[in-house]
Structure formats: structure tokens, C-alpha cells
Design goal:
alpha/beta; about 20% strand; binds NADPH dihydro-nicotinamide-adenine-dinucleotide phosphate; 12 strands; six-stranded parallel sheet; about 270 residues; six-stranded mixed sheet
Length: about 270
Amino acid sequence: MIEPKLFAVFGNPINHSKSPIMHNNAFKNLGLKDTYIRYHLENKDSLKEKFLSLNLDGANITVPFKEDAYRCCDVLDEYAKRVKAVNTIVKKENKLYGYNTDANGFLKAISSFENAKEILFLGAGGTAKATSTILKENNYNVTILNRSQKRLESFKNNFECFTFENFKPKKFDLIINMTSAGLIEENLPAPKEILEKIIPISNGCMDVIYGKETPFLKLAKEFNIPYKDGEEMLLYQGVYAFEHFTNYNFDFKEIKEAMQKGLSFYN
Ligand code: NDP
């Protein structure tokens, strides 16, 4: 008999995470006895120790431990190596394999904005870093606009970068809020004067934040611009992670539908 497997998501905070309901619903619908729990990690240095002491078969890693997860793994996939961040770990023969499924999940989520070529990222944090390269490789032109200069340093050799002070508004096909502005407060990710110049002439807006209509998305709605939140990005990174957890034994569409059903319990 095959032993049921145990998976977890590590983060801090972690209570809000929808990953357990997505994965547990997929296990159930696909006839598996596996379980997925959430784990509130206090100390980044204990990630590997907790993973091993909980006897996990795999895990997802969320904010703020993706770089620590990268350092824990014995084997890394190409993309995780490049962005130096891991959001999925699988234990195979006592080795930890690290993957980054955020980038592919994001790429799939934005594919519904047809003919989007010129993309503006608002924000230059970890999520922007993990997704900008894959967009460039897929022939999108990405411009980065960030509140402060410091985080732009790691982008400036490969992308056009601006702060609010030197940005010149122009048309972008798709504007994406990559910041945490609006997550727990009601801030916009950039000054309203800038957003009011670029949103109305864009073809779409997306927020990586999910589960709420952020002030940024409310502004897009006011201007009648098509928009979506970060739920599909979450969904697709989860489907790709599940493929790693289950060694590609299930169909992408089947996993996606089961996870979507899980998410619908929240909505
Ligand atoms: P980081 O902490 O790495 O980066 C934060 C970024 O936000 C920085 O660019 C920072 O600018 C900017 N920022 C923060 N507050 C404000 C503000 N009030 N006004 C303007 N800019 C601000 O964050 P992450 O990249 O890890 O996460 C960003 C968001 O992405 C989070 O909300 C997270 O929940 C979400 N996310 C969603 C996922 C999904 O599946 N949908 C997956 C992963 C993340 P500065 O440099 O000036 O400080």
C-alpha cells in the first residue's frame, strides 16, 4: 500500500494562505489520500529542520522565505537558480529538490490579456524579480516603476527603470501592481496623478494581490479598464507545484479544475 504523503506551506504570515484548500481539494478530487497543512515559520534558519522534522514529502514556500528555501535545496531547477528563489520543494531519495513555479504561473495568468506586449510593473520586490525575466524571455517589453531607487539596482542592466520622480507617463498595454500596497491597507502603488495618466490609456490592469479589490483595481474599474487580481497567478503556480508533488501523474486541466473548486469555497 502507498503511504499517504504530507505537504505544507511555510510562510509568515500564513493564516490567509489559500494553498491548503487548493491542494487538499485536488488530492481529494484526484483520489489521493495525501494531506497539505500550513506552517507558520518564525525563524528563517529553521526552514530545513522543520521540513525534515515534520517528515514532509514536499512544501510550498511563501513570503518571506523563498530565498531561504533556495539556500536549503540540494538540487535546483534552472529557473530557481536564475532568480535565486524557490517556492516549491520536493523530497526525493533524501534530497531536497527546489523549483520556482511562480514565474510560469504568472506567465499563464497574464496570457488572457491578448496582445499585451508593453508591460509596466509597479514595484521591484521579490515577485517582480521572479517574474520579469520570464516575461522578457517570452518577448514582452517590461518597464519597472518603483517608489525608491534601491531595489531598481538589480533590474537596471536588463530593464528600463524609473522612480516616481523621473517617470514619463506613456501608453502601456498592461499595468501590473507588483507591490504589497493595498494588501492590508488602502494605499495605491504609485501616486494617483501618475496612475490617472496611464491607466485610462492602457488595455488592462492586474494586481498580484488576491482576495480583495485593491485601490489600484478600483481605479482600473473606475476607468472601465479590464482587470483581474492575483488569484489566477496563485492558482497556476499551485497547479505547477502539484505537478511536481505528484510527479506529473495528473492532467493539468484536472488539477486546475479541482483547485479552482477549492478556491470557490472562499469566494
Ligand atoms: P517585497 O517586499 O519583495 O517588495 C515590495 C515592493 O512593494 C517594493 O517594490 C516596494 O517598494 C513596494 N511597496 C510596498 N509598499 C508600497 C507602497 N505603499 N507604495 C508604493 N510601493 C510600495 O514584496 P513581494 O514582491 O514579495 O510581494 C509583493 C506582493 O505580491 C504581495 O502583496 C504578495 O502578497 C503578492 N504575491 C502574490 C502572489 C500570487 O500568487 N498572487 C505570489 C507572490 C506574491 P520600495 O522598494 O520603495 O520599498
